[in-house]
Write a structure and sequence with these properties.
The structure is a homodimer of 202-residue chains. Chain A is of the alpha/beta class and 202 residues long. Chain A is 41% helix and 13% strand. Chain A has a domain at 70-173: Dna Topoisomerase Vi A Subunit, Chain: A, domain 2, CATH 3.40.1360. The complex binds zinc ion (ZN) (2 copies). Chains A, B: Keywords: DNA damage, DNA recombination, DNA repair, Metal-binding, Zinc, Zinc-finger.
Chain lengths: 202, 202
């Protein structure tokens, strides 16, 4: 409506950027900005510092694809983890969701997406080659395909199984119980735990 | 559940701070953090800079209480505004909401809350003294009490009216009624009664 200025350009810019954060729209961005203005020392300044430090230090694990501030990541270098089991996920968000479920003590491999010919995403655009290499090099005994229950996810699972055909690794997938078309990241811990426990041969 | 480390402490800290932003909970904070990690240069670093700059420059207008990066604020120094009309609001968020509505070209006065004896909020905790002073000094002709339609809001409105008793300023308040686009079925009886009493010719 009005193009009159009601606050400083620095605050307007902050609101514009906050509106791009998933979960916040233009209205909640204004609300968030005002809240942070009130909590300048407790929230606004610390969040600025945390974002700046994270932006500087965040890196992608060259082994598994997790987001961390060290490479290899905290999971890949954790000696208490069972390295014989690899859980294959599409996205880092899925890795974190499975970790929150706390059902497995395995390691992970982040594909970085799913095969999608229509979107021009082929095998070379995903971390599939490095997965096959890992299975060979690390002596993986079980590979759990924890991909989304979507057409693309299942297509990707089949493709990976084909690539692993002669390695002798046991390939399993999450139990049904994941809603068809559902995304892992939106599921509760109980469902994810049950799906992991009831995993079946692929 | 698990206390195992899955990512760097800098990223965990970022997620904890993001979870304190209104509109984001713990789960959406993780989602937001992962999104920003992917958009490090387009979103994470610019947001860090915007927060830092806003935290450094933001100030409260010493005249009206608006949040801005200059004092007096952009509204108080705008020569096109009708200074004879003052809109009294509880909070800066209300000021911004009214500005978005774009219905008035007035100036504002932010109380900073409402009278609430139970919470220990008395007249001296709000910007009421400065409001009365402004009305005297600026020759205000109309004071619009745009406080919330709550018990505390109305108590505060009455208190302010008492304080202004002999200044001759016209004191008005927002009309009660059905919100535009609102469904009668969802409104409380008080709103419906008020809307009926204040009915207008069709
Ligand atoms: Zn890793
Ligand atoms: Zn002002």
């Amino acid at each position: 409506m009005s193009t009159k200025r009601i606050t400083g350009p620095e605050i307007e810019k902050l609101i514009q950027l906050l509106a791009k954060v998933p979960g916040l729209g233009p209205r909640s961005a204004r609300r968030a900005a005002l809240h942070m203005i009130k909590k300048k020392n407790q929230l606004m300044a610390p969040l600025a510092a945390a974002l700046s430090e994270a932006a500087e230090k965040v890196t992608v694990c060259s082994v598994c694809g997790n987001a961390d501030t060290v490479d290899p990541c905290s999971i890949c270098t954790d000696p208490r983890r069972d390295g014989a089991t690899l859980i294959v996920v599409e996205d880092v968000a899925d890795l974190w969701a499975l970790e929150r479920a706390g059902a497995m003590n395995a390691k992970y491999h982040v594909l970085g997406g799913t095969l999608s010919p229509l979107d021009g995403v082929g095998p070379d655009d995903l971390n599939i080659r490095s997965l096959v290499d890992r299975v060979g090099a690390e002596g993986t005994s079980e590979l759990i395909l924890a991909v989304n229950a979507t057409v693309e996810g299942q297509t990707t699972a089949h493709y990976i199984t084909d690539q692993l055909g002669d390695t002798g690794v046991r390939v399993t997938r999450l139990a049904h119980g994941v809603p068809v078309g559902g995304e892992l990241d939106y599921l509760d811990e109980g469902t994810l735990s049950a799906a992991l426990r009831s995993r079946t041969s692929f």
